[in-house]
Amino acid sequence: MSRLKLRIKLFLKFVFHAAIPSSNIKNKLLKFFGRDYELNEKELSNFISIDISSLKHKKENFIVSLTTFPARINSLKYTLYSIFMQNLQPKKVILSLSSEEFLDKVLPYEVLEFKKYGLEILWNDKNLRQYNKIIPILEKYGDEVIITLDDDIFYPQGLLKGLFEAHLNNKNVIWTQRARTINYHDRIIDSFSTWKLIKKNDFNRQEKPSFHLFLEGVGGVLYPPNSLYKDVCDSIRFMKLSPKADDLWLWAMAILNGSKIAVVKNNLMANGNAMTISPNNTSLWLDNLVSGNDVQLKSIINYYPRILEILESSKCNKDIM
Rounded to two decimals, what is the model's pTM? Predict the structure, then answer.
């Protein structure tokens, strides 16, 4: 039944986009109804009109990491700009890339320009795809506080500050700006499509650490040092069990490590996010939503059945009701 409801929603979404050819009107409607929308060229130009070098924002002891691939490298500058505009800055911003994807390690000038503001490029011989944003960083900076971000979002002001301040209040928790409540009962995890997004005004579910919350990397996730299970960097294993769903793998590694997950207060990324590309171009997300997430979650659970034991023994589902 849940799969049928999802397909109906996706069909209605298709009809919506087909019926409204004007991208301007379409994005205004999406923004009004709290859905992800694409920033147009004028909006993007307005956002990046401030000189970053003139800003004197405070830096704190954490690292921001992200990755991208050739098809998105030209729009990455907007996401980078939104990071360096944050009112709380990390001590490092690391762009982790695969040398297999970028021949001769050639990058656009607009990306390299951010090196003068502190951007570091980390080249990796292996191509771990979306896992590039965290695995090489964990291997090199495992004792650091790490915040991962995606490459197709213009992040709102205060996002990094919200995550880091939440961390200072509770350093034993993995903090996220965007999360879903996992539907779990009788030792069965329901389909990913039934997991409800925690909204911005759902104050009863914010700042409540739980094993029954699923972190979504798109909104930004803060990982304290040693908060993930020892297998987290096993590329052979995660490429076999969850090759296209890094968030599922990282959630599993958190649970197995005994690390609870919590949504920050006034979570900025709950819905209606400003994207630098069309929401319809996120094919990996769509494939995972329809069936891929459930398949990969089953593979992870079959390999690590202790996850179900932790969920069963935990009363965290009551904590977030």
Answer: 0.89
